[in-house]
Each structure stands twice: as structure tokens, then as C-alpha cells.
């Protein structure tokens, strides 16, 4: 193969000794994605409990808690989507914000 043919080849096969490149931040996005998914499940559970309380005689979670969970889940999903589609410090900050939103929601609506 001549030098000009090598220059026009778009992709070359990896050499036997080359290590495959590993995407950085994969575990971090996986963790924050799992936390965001858990917050969505929690928000859906609170919403179902609120709907059930409308039709029965039991006390429900209340409007503040209900809408707070839904808003927190929406914000966490938006931050996770940003983290999944970007790289570097902005993606790490978005993933960290998922954790902060989740901790704030759980602390505000469950422990305080």
C-alpha cells in the first residue's frame, strides 16, 4: 500500500497492542442516571398516593409535597439529559446537580 492510499483510508484497524479508548465519566453518568430514575419512581409513587387519597378517606401527601416531588424529578431528568449529551466539567456539574436535587427533595419532603 502506498502512502497516498493510507492517507485516504478513513479508519484503520487497531494494532494488536493498542488498548481501546474508554469513555471517561461513564460510571458517574450511570450513577446520576440511576439516582434520577429513582427520583422519578418516587415522584410517581407520591403522585399515585395523592390520587388515591382523593378518592378515599385517607390523608394524602399534600399539594406542596406532590408538586415538589414532580418538579424535582423533572429538574433531575433535565440535568441528567444534559449530562448524558455533553462532556467535561459542564457534564460533571449537571450530574452533580442531579444528586443535589435528589438529596434536597428527600430531605425537604421526607426528613424535615
Please explain how this structure is put together.
The chain has helices at 3-8, 26-55, 63-85, 89-111. It is mainly α and 112 residues long. It has one domain (26-111). Helix 2 (26-55) packs antiparallel against helix 3 (63-85). The longest helix is centred in the middle third of the chain and has 30 residues, at 26-55. It is elongated and about 70 Å long. The chain starts with a helix and ends with a helix.
Offer a quick outline of the entry.
The protein is mainly α and 112 residues long. The protein has 4 helices and no strands.
Percent of residues in helices: over 70%
Query: H/E series, N to C?
Result: HHHH
Helix/strand-derived category reads mainly alpha
- The first-to-last residue Cα distance is 71 Å
Keywords: Membrane, Transmembrane, Transmembrane helix
Transmembrane segments: 31-55, 61-79, 91-110
Region (Disordered): 1-25
Biased composition (Polar residues): 1-11
Amino acid at each position: 500500500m502506498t502512502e497516498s492510499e493510507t492517507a485516504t483510508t478513513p479508519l484503520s484497524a487497531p494494532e494488536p497492542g493498542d488498548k481501546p479508548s474508554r469513555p471517561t465519566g461513564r460510571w458517574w453518568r450511570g450513577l446520576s442516571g440511576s439516582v434520577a430514575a429513582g427520583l422519578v419512581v418516587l415522584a410517581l409513587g407520591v403522585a399515585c398516593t395523592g390520587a388515591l387519597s382523593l378518592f378515599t378517606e385517607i390523608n394524602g401527601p399534600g399539594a406542596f409535597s406532590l408538586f415538589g416531588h414532580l418538579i424535582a424529578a423533572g429538574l433531575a431528568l433535565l440535568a441528567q439529559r444534559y449530562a448524558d449529551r455533553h462532556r467535561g466539567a459542564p457534564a460533571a456539574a449537571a450530574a452533580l446537580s442531579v444528586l443535589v436535587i435528589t438529596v434536597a427533595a428527600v430531605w425537604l419532603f421526607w426528613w424535615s
